[in-house]
Design a protein that fits this description.
Length: about 120
């Protein structure tokens, strides 16, 4: 288990990254940290129960990073799914955002409450 500290003006957030179950995801995220990609990054969006049912899954997350526009050309390897790792989007879990399956993005989010719709196959 790797630990990463996110410093914010509201206090530190300690992240536990499970590199034994999601080695590619943890490596991709940590390489972004080591390269300085996240310097100046911020939490820029809170998604609270998307208002248009059917367009996006209804989820609660706090999203952070450098912003989609700033990282649209940053790609990495396809990352593990929750089906492969056995990890779940539970309260406080951190996950890398993706635009579609089999993609990767340095943007990340923290789950507010359990978010089973974000797990593989999107069960509720």
């Amino acid at each position: 288990m790797k630990r990463v500290v996110v410093h914010s003006k509201y206090g530190d957030i300690i992240l536990a990254l499970d590199d034994s179950k999601a080695p590619a995801s943890v490596d991709f995220f940590c390489r972004g940290i080591e390269s300085g990609l996240y310097m100046g990054a911020h939490f820029y969006r809170v998604v609270r129960k998307n208002p248009v049912e059917g367009e996006l899954p209804s989820i609660d997350i706090l999203q952070g990073g450098v912003g989609w526009d700033s990282c649209s050309d940053i790609t990495g390897p396809p990352l593990e799914t929750t089906r492969q790792t056995g990890l779940r989007h539970t309260d406080g879990a951190i996950s890398l955002a993706r635009s579609e399956p089999e993609t990767s993005s340095p943007e990340f989010f923290i789950c507010i409450g359990d978010q089973p719709k974000l797990d593989y196959a999107g069960t509720s």
